[in-house]
């Protein structure tokens, strides 16, 4: 017999699935591409295509087993895969996020459908990096990941060399570098030019557009895939549009929430491959996924969002 919490969880999950609206939903959790499906973009290094909406796990997956938040994450993942999502970003230093993610993917048999990105994070030296990666694989319950990133440029030379070694061994498909603050953009751009990683991950939003200066043009020139973090400024953008109506052009672009407008803004830069909003709430996961269907914003639409947030 279902417990009340279990019942509520599955009921809210069904409601959130319905809320996917025009986004094509698949019971197989693997919708075929086509009309209504999440848009895909190409990773230049290989030509592999990934869905434009991924998800983060910082904060949202740092929850205790057996809590209502943990139960909600089960639905967050169900909705994510049902809507066509695959790309999930995590890190060994996001509290217990890797453990929670690994357990929930294993429980639902979803590892084969997922495209996992994690990091070498806060470690110094090759041995420490290797030990951390081995532990990460255990926590994620897998024997390889799709993307291994050097977190916040820490111990860069050694950790990037290690990531490349692991790539050569088939334990990661791609290597990357990450940061999340604008002061590091110039250093990151220099590193990208020198190292040409497969991926870079950087912050970009309607109000923080520094990546447009050097990082995006460089990524396009060199064929580096771009993953966007903090498209909601860690949630702070929502307070800035509280009680503001959506722009009048939004509905015609299939945009029905500010979250979708913010994500579509990030995706409208042609250098961007995937954006990874984080939420622990099933209905917000459905909301975020819907940003991945519809046209890129025009220059005027982008300008109107920038003005709305100014
Ligand atoms: N250096 C790095 O490599 C680095 C740094 C920062 C982040 N990241 C990665 O990027 C991911 C995303 O960044 P982030 O987590 O800092 O911030 P974010 O995605 O900009 O914002 C997350 C916040 O937005 C809220 N939210 C999500 N969807 C929403 C919706 N549809 N409507 C209203 N509120 C919504 C969430 O609250 P609820 O959970 O309550 O919904 C949460 O508070 C991280 O999880 C992590 O994987 C990497």
What is the succession of H and E elements? HEEHEHEHEHEHEHEHHEHH
Summarize the main sheet.
7 strands, parallel
> What is the helix fraction of residues, given as a range?
25-40%
- Rounded to the nearest angstrom, the distance between the terminal CA atoms is 53 Å
Please count the beta strands (DSSP E, at least 2 residues each).
Answer: 9
Characterization of this structure:
This protein has 310 residues and is α/β, with parallel strands linked by helices. The chain has one domain (49-309): TIM Barrel. The chain has helices at 4-18, 68-82, 97-107, 126-140, 156-168, 185-195, 215-222, 236-240, 258-267, 282-290, 299-309; strands at 40-42, 49-51, 87-89, 115-120, 145-150, 172-178, 199-203, 225-229, 274-275. The protein has a 7-stranded parallel β-sheet with strand order 3-4-5-6-7-8-9. A two-stranded antiparallel sheet has the order 1-2. Helix 4 links the parallel strand 4 and strand 5 (145-150). Helix 1 runs parallel beside helix 10 (282-290). The radius of gyration is 19 Å and the shape is globular. The N and C termini lie far apart (53 Å). The protein binds NADP nicotinamide-adenine-dinucleotide phosphate (NAP).
Please supply descriptive tags for the structure shown above.
310 residues, globular, alpha/beta, 9 strands, two-stranded antiparallel sheet, seven-stranded parallel β-sheet, disordered N terminus, binds NADP nicotinamide-adenine-dinucleotide phosphate, TIM Barrel
